[in-house]
Amino acid sequence: MPAKYRIRNCLRLSMGGFLMMVMLVAPCFAGAPTDGVKETTDRILVIVSDPALKGPENKDKRGKLIRQAVDERFNWEAMTKRSLARHWRKRTDAEKKEFIELFGKLLERTYLDKVGSYSGEKVIYVGETIDGKYGTVTAKILTHSHTEVLVRYRLKETGGNWRVYDISVEGVSLVNNYRKQFNSIILRSSYDDLVAKLRAKVAEKD
Fold it and tell me: Does the model's pTM come out above 0.70?
């Protein structure tokens, strides 16, 4: 399968993770990591529910506000580093900076337009664990078709703030998905080819 299609399939597989983030609205308990996720979720829900931000004419403004909220909760550098894995160490500082920016824009392009699909799905927080500076928040999404979707947020505490570095939906990790795809492209072609593909994806017109 051509690399460009593998990237596209990867995006589809991991899309649920980001969507689940904006559905967490009814925690049955809250600890520090859960509070952090809920705070960001509440901000996003206010944005997507605001009548003044509805409509295609407000798409850019709505997207910018959502990205700002997500930036405060997601650790893009940690996600990028884990997604590139062993290839991260070989990159120059300039390459790392560019890839972090590309990765953030890739997720923004792939997911933020989907946030508006939230339609009141019910959520139950079923667990929270903390091990030093690392935490996991587990939730069940109750869909309108009466099925349950298990979601896990993995966070790390930095400077008193819990930030997400991975999301798993039904055991499928967003970071692991990208890691496999990125590694495959680099080994079959080159790092420069991967960057070129990401630039093209980010630059695509709607």
Answer: yes
